Q: What sequence folds into this?
């Protein structure tokens, strides 16, 4: 009956240090314990090799320990899939920061409630972002990279090419890559 920890942050610039210290303090490095860690987005478990290794490592009677629910998944649907998989394996789940222990009825109830709330918050955040982008577009904000050439420069470049100027010379004249020149000529 080992305590197996899983720590995850979304990007390489973030630190796992706080999660690792909490998992270690809980006993995940005891003689039979282990901590799996990775720096990957939580949206897709197929793209998280350490999570897959952690799942393969878990045995009946083990306890999976995480610091927060959002380290495991991003949606209620995904969390319930993981919970069912853990239950099938005979593995309990402990979430340290939210005091969840699925070995108890109360812990299972709290797990499901918090998962629903987390997904609701994620949906609200996504909707606010979509609304903000739409409003910005309505106000004339342009997204994406700035145009490399003005309309006049683009016409001039196309004329040069029509007159037989070599691509390498056009690249040099406008400070563009070969791919940019061909893309702009095709527009």
A:
């Amino acid at each position: 009956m080992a305590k197996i920890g899983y720590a995850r942050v979304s990007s390489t610039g973030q630190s796992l240090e706080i999660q690792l210290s909490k998992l270690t303090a809980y006993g995940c490095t005891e003689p039979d314990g282990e901590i799996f860690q990775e720096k990957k987005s939580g949206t897709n478990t197929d793209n998280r090799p350490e999570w897959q290794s952690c799942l393969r490592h878990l045995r009946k009677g083990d306890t999976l320990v995480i610091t927060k629910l959002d380290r495991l998944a991003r949606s209620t649907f995904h969390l319930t899939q993981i919970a069912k998989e853990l239950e099938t394996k005979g593995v309990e789940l402990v979430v340290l920061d939210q005091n969840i222990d699925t070995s108890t009825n109360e812990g299972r109830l709290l797990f499901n409630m918090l998962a629903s709330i987390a997904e609701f918050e994620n949906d609200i955040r996504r909707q606010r972002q979509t609304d903000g982008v739409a409003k910005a577009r309505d106000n004339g904000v342009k997204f994406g990279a700035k145009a490399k050439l003005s309309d006049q420069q683009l016409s001039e470049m196309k004329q040069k090419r029509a007159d037989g100027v070599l691509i390498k010379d056009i690249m040099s004249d406008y400070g563009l890559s070969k791919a940019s020149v061909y893309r702009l000529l095709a527009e």
The beta strands are 3-9, 34-39, 63-66, 92-95, 100-101.
